[in-house]
From TrEMBL:
<dbReference type="Pfam" id="PF02771">
    <property type="entry name" value="Acyl-CoA_dh_N"/>
</dbReference>
<dbReference type="Pfam" id="PF00441">
    <property type="entry name" value="Acyl-CoA_dh_1"/>
</dbReference>
<keyword id="KW-0101">Branched-chain amino acid catabolism</keyword>
<protein>
    <submittedName>
        <fullName>Acyl-CoA dehydrogenase</fullName>
    </submittedName>
</protein>
<feature type="domain" description="Acyl-CoA oxidase/dehydrogenase middle">
    <location>
        <begin position="119"/>
        <end position="214"/>
    </location>
</feature>
<dbReference type="InterPro" id="IPR046373">
    <property type="entry name" value="Acyl-CoA_Oxase/DH_mid-dom_sf"/>
</dbReference>
<keyword id="KW-0274">FAD</keyword>
<feature type="domain" description="Acyl-CoA dehydrogenase/oxidase C-terminal">
    <location>
        <begin position="229"/>
        <end position="374"/>
    </location>
</feature>
<comment type="similarity">
    <text>Belongs to the acyl-CoA dehydrogenase family.</text>
</comment>
<comment type="pathway">
    <text>Amino-acid degradation; L-valine degradation.</text>
</comment>
<keyword id="KW-0285">Flavoprotein</keyword>
<dbReference type="InterPro" id="IPR009075">
    <property type="entry name" value="AcylCo_DH/oxidase_C"/>
</dbReference>
<dbReference type="InterPro" id="IPR009100">
    <property type="entry name" value="AcylCoA_DH/oxidase_NM_dom_sf"/>
</dbReference>
<dbReference type="InterPro" id="IPR006091">
    <property type="entry name" value="Acyl-CoA_Oxase/DH_mid-dom"/>
</dbReference>
<dbReference type="InterPro" id="IPR036250">
    <property type="entry name" value="AcylCo_DH-like_C"/>
</dbReference>
<dbReference type="Pfam" id="PF02770">
    <property type="entry name" value="Acyl-CoA_dh_M"/>
</dbReference>
<keyword id="KW-0560">Oxidoreductase</keyword>
């Protein structure tokens, strides 16, 4: 998409987020659900398919454009982005990166329009940070695949129409035996549990899924190749780490805004607390980390677009951004004092919301492992 058209979309999203979604944050928190009016408006704006190629009905944004969009989406509750995050991100990108042309033509236009919501079904009770240990199986029987097993913490599963299911299709150990399949949620044997009760990110639903002799046609093997499951999952997650970092950057900016605004308005001993140097120190630290996060994620997006680094940089920015936004949220609560501990105050809600960023799409500890491994590789190879 050319910059002029993108800037128009970006401006519209910025206005929508700040004038429509932000005023609805308390309602979303209380009801644990994003209003249907907001869902529909987001669909009308093309937000269900901004990362899907234009030839399949999406906006076809570059990674740099995606990151700039996520900086705006991050200004509000993460549950807003979560509605369409799986279509654009980890689930939709499985099809974009690995689907056959027939699979892409069949599903991507419906994902882009919001007619269909897709979920990325990888995590299991015994396979989280190390997905190569997953136990869900897919056995070929005649002209069908038969899937058995279970998944956990699957975002949007409660209202998804299709799942990207990762399952072990042969007896090869580790990651080599993992394939990925298209599984419509109305297929007999698929059971989606009621959505989880979480610490934060109300309005973003996760659920367990059970597969009991679920039969799908052979053509539902994504890419028509059993060997691509694990590499495809990793590629989708790597891309997702950049966008999660951008979301953290956007939310960091919102938290600095809430902190500075409160400090300027709150008076103690006849003075705005913004005049107190210890409060200024907290705000300075938060603004510095927010600035650094934004700069890092824009550079990582540029590196992605230019195919310079699609391995280490995504982990670096996801690790830094998710840790930084947690520190910024903590300072925001501290600046607000007792008020920051009260329900109904934005920083209290965000304090709970941001905790998940250090866990999903690769924990901070997994990012450390990836960063160290890729940093050390050339030195080890030299010896």
């Amino acid at each position: 998409m050319d910059d002029k058209d993108f800037d128009e979309i970006l401006g519209a999203v910025r206005t929508f987020v700040r004038e429509v979604v932000v005023p609805a944050e308390d309602e979303i928190e209380a009801k644990d659900e994003v209003p249907m009016t907001i869902r529909q408006q987001a669909k009308d704006m093309g937000l269900w398919g901004f990362a899907i190629p234009e030839e399949y009905g999406g906006l076809g944004l570059s990674m740099t454009q995606e990151v700039r969009l996520y900086l705006e989406l991050g200004w509000t509750t993460p549950s807003f982005r979560s509605m369409f995050g799986t279509n654009n991100g980890i689930a939709g990108q499985v099809l974009v990166k690995a689907g056959t042309e027939e699979q892409k033509k069949s599903w991507l236009p419906r994902l882009a329009s919001g007619e269909v919501t897709a979920s990325f079904a990888l995590t299991e009770p015994e396979a989280g940070s190390d997905p190569s240990t997953l136990r869900t199986t897919a056995k070929r029987e005649g002209d069908e695949w038969v899937i058995n097993g279970g998944k956990t913490f699957i975002t949007n599963a409660a209202y998804s129409q299709v799942l990207m299911v990762f399952a072990r299709s042969n007896d090869q150990a580790g990651s080599r035996g993992i394939a990925v399949f298209l599984v419509p949620t109305d297929t007999p044997g698929v059971t989606v549990a009621p959505h989880d009760l979480k610490m934060g990110q109300m309005g973003s639903w996760t659920s367990d899924i059970n597969f009991d002799d679920v039969r799908i046609p052979l053509e539902n093997l994504i890419g028509g190749d059993e060997a691509i499951g694990f590499p495809t999952a990793m590629k989708s997650l790597q891309q997702g780490r950049v966008t999660i970092a951008a979301l953290c950057a956007g939310l960091s900016a919102r938290l600095v805004h809430e902190s500075a605004k409160y400090a300027a308005e709150r008076h103690q001993s006849g003075h705005a607390i913004a005049e107190f140097q210890l409060i200024q120190g907290l705000i300075a630290d938060s603004e510095t980390e927010a600035y650094a996060t934004k700069a890092m994620v824009l550079q990582a997006a540029k590196d992605w677009d230019e195919d310079v680094d699609r391995r280490k940089a995504p982990s670096i920015v996801k690790y830094f951004a998710s840790e930084a936004v947690n520190r910024i949220a903590d300072r925001a609560v501290q600046i607000h004092g007792g008020s920051g501990y009260m329900r109904g105050v934005a920083v209290e809600r965000f304090y709970r919301d941001v905790r998940l960023f250090r866990i999903y799409e690769g924990t901070s500890q997994i990012q450390q492992v990836v960063i160290a491994k890729n940093t050390l590789r050339p030195y080890r190879e030299a010896n």
